[in-house]
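User: Quick sanity check before I run a bigger batch. Here is a single chain. Can you write out its predicted 3D structure?
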Amino acid sequence: MAAVSKAFVARLAGLAVIGPDGESIGRVRDVVVSVRFGTGQPRVLGLAVELTTRRRIFVPMLRVTAIEPNSVTLSTGTVSLRRLILRPGEALVLGQIVESRVRVNDPDLEHLADEDLAVVDVAIERRRTRDWVISRVAVRGARTRLGRRGETHVVEWNHVLGLTQSALALPGQGVAQILSQFDGMRAADVAHALRELPSKRRQEIASALDDERLADVVQELPTDDQTDLLGHMAVERAADVLEAMDPDDAADLLGELPDAEAEALLQLMDPQESEPVRRLMLHSPDTAGGLMTTEPLVVTPSTTIAEALARARNPDLTPASASLTFVVRPPTATPTGKYLGCVHIQALLREPPANLVGGIIDDRLPNLGPNDSLEKVTRYFATYNLVCGPVIDDDGHLIGAVTVDDLLDHLLPEDWRETEGDDDLAEGLR
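Assistant: Done. Predicted structure follows.
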């Protein structure tokens, strides 16, 4: 297929990125441009490429040798694996420019002169110098009185007003385009994508996400980004998001806030949601009680194998949480009735569905106490080859469970979500 020297950015999104030998490197997710002051054409700096590991990296545009209908070819298969970080004066086309508001002064479109228009796409073009620049902008007017979408027009760059760094920083930008990119993505990957964007853009996207989705994403952000997002929300919305978070993650986040602010949010939360969070906040964060979730998989001895397996299939449970079912006397809400033991997921799979869980309880597995140290929890998992363990109080009640994901979160450096390993293949230059 023939390479092209002009392309709309929205059509590039999702294209495979390959090296000169045809090896797959990743997929295009966005285009990084330099937004200049004045009327000069913005230069295209490079591509935001998503690797198979979901990390997004920067690939300089000068390394692009061909843009074809189904792929983008690079001059080298060696790229920097450092996470994409925007510098001052840079912007993502799909992440920031698309859906921003502009005006046009095109003499051929005089009827649009005073209309507030939305950017729907951006065309880039390669010049004779091999540099790529933004050449045209596709814009759309407001919806008609009948609710139909406005007509789309493609305007030369020099007739577009308002695409500046200061304009992109104004509130009220749409988010439909960028939200469509997040469909089907894991919460951790959405969190990585959000971290590439300025605070203002993150806040707009957060406002558009529903409470459950936003809660999942917030849990995957570094602490500073969590508190920044929460701090820009109305307190009622912040309380709703905290309610939707896992209690242990909500407790960790509230622990980073001033006491008065944390208490105000707890007061706004539903008492049933805030009560386990308050209990978790009583424990030191580097103990089993501070690490645990208060919502493990709990059943009674009279539960059938079929029902226990159905509970384990709950998509809201992490694989680690689903690996171990805890058996107690009623009540089953933490703190539960008397703790009897646990059943491993493999044991459930080996039993006839109609049998009762009470017949296969493992009551010999040692327990964790709420004051057990991080080191003791680590040794516990290593000794018994577990990814989940029960936390029992002095009265023999199950009060929660520690899972390996929460343990790793505390064993890794505090800024592990913000840093990458030293695994660069080469240093990319802009």
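The domain at 6-92 is CATH 2.30.30.240 (SH3 type barrels.).

User: Great, the batch can go ahead then.
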